[in-house]
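During the first year of the project, the team set up a workflow for recording each protein of interest as an amino acid sequence followed immediately by a discrete structure-token representation. This format lets reviewers and collaborators read both layers of information side by side without switching files. As required by the reporting guidelines, we include two representative entries from the current panel. The first entry is reproduced here exactly as it appears in our internal archive.
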Amino acid sequence: MSDTLHDTIHRVTQRVIEKSSDSRTAYLDLIAREADNQPDRAQVSCSNLAHAYAGALEDQTALKANRGPNIGIVSAYNDMLSAHQPYGRYPERLKIYAREVGATAQVAGATPAMCDGVTQGETGMELSLFSRDVIALSTGVALSHAMYDSALMLGICDKIVPGLVIGALRFGHLPAIFVPSGPMPSGISNKQKQATRQLYAEGKATRAQLLESELGSYHSPGTCTFYGTANSNQMMMEMMGLHIPGSAFIQPGTKLRQALDREAVHRVAAIGRSGNDYRPLGHCVDEKAIINAAIGLLATGGSTNHAIHIPAMARAAGVQFDWTDLAELSGAVPLVANVYPNGAGDVNHFHDAGGMGYVIGTLLSEGLCHRDVLTVGAGDLSAYAREPGLDGDTLTWREVGKSGDDTMLKPASDPFQPDGGMRLVQGNLGRACFKSSAVARDRYTVEAPCRVFETQHAVAEAFSAGELDRDVVVVVRFQGPRANGMPELHKLTPPLGVLQDRGYKVALVTDGRMSGASGKVPAAIHCTPEALGGGPLSKLRDGDVVKICATTGELSTTADLDSRDPAPDSLDQQGMGRELFAMFRMHADGAEKGGSAMLATGGM
């Protein structure tokens, strides 16, 4: 493996380190003070301890004797999310594994865990992004009892892992390991599922046929198998060294899954302050770990949502990372994975072909990511370039070797494309992200008259009426964090895909988000500044010529925006609990900073 880091990655890393100097120093000072201020449990008031120990009947003796580390479990369990359903029985097992090494474990708290797949196209989606802040706050509440020497984070899906990371980083003096539960087995082919969606959008399939198709894809406990935000989260935890190596895509209910869970408990008990291998989370998540997360996102064509989540997680650790950094990395990082929606196979096929062990190994071999990061494992990132297995009942790791399927995984020296899966586009319409990994190169540039909408439902109505059967740039505005919580606009994908398949040049421009499964239609998303408050999108009118070009990085219009007043918004923020989130919307910062109210107002 190469010990020489690619020049661009070195340059971007140094820039991030330099601009983060003051905030990172302040963060490290904070967690050092927190470590010094956290009392040994033996010195805490007996009344406090009695409250904490009263419910832990099987472990009371060990807790009273302060016999070993006490591990806090923060769980995002519910059984409405298929990915999180397996977590229901985890605490029982994790406590047994803790006792095996003289430790104890308690469920410190729970966090919400909403499913974007359930709320797509519904008003509940307007709570989605801010659920990340609520999850971070819930994690903070869980860990505020000062009863824990380390923590296990149980979460997988879209906003949940970033929220857990942000919350846990505010207790960065504690070691923390993230514990996934793995993907469900593969269902019907992604191509078949997508075809049915488009037929339904055209009125050629019934609702019953569509539901049957969807149930054929999302059919059992475990993470959805397409490479969206949930599975991109798991990729990032591997790239940052926050999993037990190779944990990401091992299916639930298997012996290997249980062995990895057991190892996570044993390991988090071993890396506390009382041992000789202290690995606090705040030291693991540094500038290099954040850069590695971004590199993994680009190399695998991961979810566009992480253009928001990575800057937010970085800020929680005192690291300043923005879309300029992401775009520059994208120019140097090759695309080595081809997972649906970019390719045909899902994450199970990806894992079988070599998975994250192969990805990390090939990136390290070409000097394309940081090896020298402090991981939660026993070594540096090299340990994550292997794959786990069982020798009888013993957990082992082995070399991955060559790709098991070169339609799914290719070496960094001979990639699917020479640059990463995401680009920055900017101009007089603002700055936005363009996911290039799933878009054919002959569609990188679209220049056409725009049609302006304020809801995705209005787009669907115009499509059904035949009003979009032409070359068109669809603009959907007032979808930013401060407007309505920046919902995903996944319902746009089928109709825009149909228009593109009919031969039209079609693109999307929006200050909202697209699903982590964003596909083949060129799109400038997360546009900032957002329309609410007078951003450029608020001044566009139907018929203005808009150009989006991933090749040149352009997002512009020929219209004279300076001569126009912003359009008024017609937002309705009552119902489905949206009124409870008014404070979040009011204080949210821009998408490039993470779209967070909590980080904007919390001195980070």
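The second entry, processed by the same pipeline in the following quarter, appears below.
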Amino acid sequence: MLIELRIRNFAVLRSALLRLDPGLNVISGETGAGKSIVVDALEILLGGRASSSVVRSGEERATVEGVFDVQGDADLAAALDEQGLEADDGHLVMRREVRSEGRSRAWINGSPATAALLRRIGALLVDIHGQHEHQRLMSAAFQREVLDAFGGCAELATDVARHFRHAAELQRRLDALAERRRDLESRADFIRFRLGEIRGARIRPREDDEIQAEVNRLANADLLMRETYALQTLLHDDDEAVTDRLSDAAARLRRLAEIDPALAATASALQDAYHSVSDAAAELRSYGDAIDHDPARLERLHERQALLQALMRKYGPTLAAVIEAGETLARELADLETAELDATELRNKAVHAQETCATTAAELSRRRRDAAKRLARETDALFPSLGLEGGRFRVDFEALPEPSAHGLERVRFMATMNPGFPPGPLSRIASGGELSRVMLALKSVLTDIDDLPTLVFDEIDAGIGGVVADKVGERLEAVARGRQVFAVTHLARIAARAVNQFVVEKAAVEGVAETSLSRLAREERVHEIARMLGGDPDSEPSLEHARELLG
């Protein structure tokens, strides 16, 4: 709720401070005094287009600041949290400054803000109806949401959106799978050829290292045999063999160890050395005996080496990479073989999801049309009492070429003010006063649905008077119960129903036009209401009539 509005150097208004209360608040004043300036200033505060023309002549800047009570507003708290902002003790301060050179700046609770952010936050705080376009009910999305809320099918609309997204996701996956399958099919023969090439080689891990080791042995068989026999002879078979010398040395050292035990460990080590050399000589004999001179085997190994090297050049720098390439190709081929099964299952799921979405959307469409008839009937019933005799309200449904997340149709609020003329979009109604009264009728019908805290009506009483004015006042008062309504009016019967009344007055100060705005006390309201009645504002009958209206 707007609890305070400060305006400075805005158009012909030098300075104004409005402290507002819940319920109906009105602004009155002589024709031409500038009653709508406050609404213009509020629109700019809420992110409307700002130009240097709003800056008072001779001043550097115009400023508008609003203080809002936002306690308990969860939607607003969430919107602020997204921007890293929060209400200060349940209050939100929005401020906008327009400079004479045309630039503008804005703040929310002291933090710089863009005009877009002002519009987003402002849309959760205030709804302005009148000659300007700052109206939530002009939004097709909001009209659809209002109709769904009125018809009690908001949850069904949520289900439609959920089913639509699910069906769309399944279709996306199905399309991706089909694209993948087409790609695999185009490569299938190539995949099979390469996989056959790798599998046909029957590669073992680290086979290339094993082959190289065997090739080295076979290629150097004579050298290995000759050298191992020579070493075996040196170690064991010669007259001066190493084992004989070690055996003799170990025996002599054992005798010395009997004299001095300190030599025992060395004697033992020397004995171990003898056994090690003996074992080495035996292993060299066995190794030499096992060497095989097999040129055919060596040739086969060279051929195998050539095959493996060719595969490594083609599929990877290592044999492990070749094996991995074969596994990848095998997986791709398996994907191709199972893709049709996957596609069939996914296609069945997608069809089921689309059918569910279509069924839910059809039910939503049916309930929307029922709600539209009731909304039109209830709104039409209010038109005559608001001076809109012959006016009709309708909800138009435009079938979409394809179902959407929002259902099977586009929802649009329509109205006509003239008998015999077809309804048109609300945004095309020519008269600002008529448009405001249409909105007032809708707000009356939707009062339990639309929980926006502050409504502003400008020009709502254009072209009406008498009994109709009384009915409009009743409507405004009814809509204002439990919320705040701010209206610009020239009719006493409307102004008298307000909890607060402000008056706008224009005068020439040192030859320059200047508008002032003040809140009226009880007796001041009596005189202002008397003036608005059209008689002599100072006559006792006019004053008495004014008191009767104020109650």
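For the second entry, the following points were noted during internal review. The mean pLDDT is 87. The first strand starts at residue 2 and ends at 10. Both points are flagged for discussion at the upcoming steering committee meeting.
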